[in-house]
Design goal:
With 166 residues, this protein is of the alpha+beta class. It has helices spanning 2-24, 58-82, 88-111, 132-150, and strands at 30-34, 38-45, 114-122, 125-126. The protein has a four-stranded antiparallel sheet. The N and C termini lie far apart (56 Å).
Length: 166
């Protein structure tokens, strides 16, 4: 139930924030929140992360993102189902990634592109704009990497060397 809440909560927050941006801002409008560091900037990204494939045809992008999304959701679901129930950190991380992936997939299905609005920059150097779903995916992947890096492995007991005397 916790995993469904994490996934559903991310999807809901992602879609609500995107809806709020679309209703209250004009496309390409930017509202500084912290001068020279952070703004709310409404953009639409037809490409992948960081605008990759944005120049490709709509048909290619729809097929590519459709197949990629099906594969990714299947893979995440499989990983989630195969993780031990006591591995709560790993399972929550995957649930976060899953929620973010579904949030962006909803945009692609509805609009053919993803709504981005979080704009981090220093002076004129901008990180590509992103959204709540992107943040959940990033945090989930980082948490999963850290979790696996520090996961304690139990060594199987070694076979006794004295059991086979020649």
């Amino acid at each position: 139930m916790l995993l469904a809440s994490v996934t559903g909560g991310i999807i809901l927050l992602d879609q609500l924030t995107k809806q709020q941006i679309m209703q209250t801002m004009r496309l390409h409008e930017s509202i500084p929140v912290i001068p020279n560091l952070f703004s709310l900037t409404y953009i639409r990204n037809p490409g992948a992360a960081f605008g990759l494939l944005a120049g490709s045809s709509n048909a290619f992008r729809m097929v590519f993102f459709g197949l990629t999304s099906i594969f990714a959701l299947g893979l995440l679901g499989t990983i989630l189902l195969r993780m031990p129930e006591e591995d709560w950190m790993g399972r929550i991380s995957v649930a976060g990634i899953l929620g973010g992936a579904i949030g962006n997939l909803i945009d692609r299905l509805r609009f053919g592109e993803v709504i981005d609005f979080l704009d981090v920059y220093i002076e004129s150097y901008h990180w590509p704009a992103f959204n709540v779903a992107d943040s959940a995916i990033t945090v989930g992947v980082i948490a999963l990497i850290i979790h696996f890096a520090f996961e304690k492995h139990t060594e199987p007991p070694e076979a006794s060397e004295t059991s086979s005397a020649s």
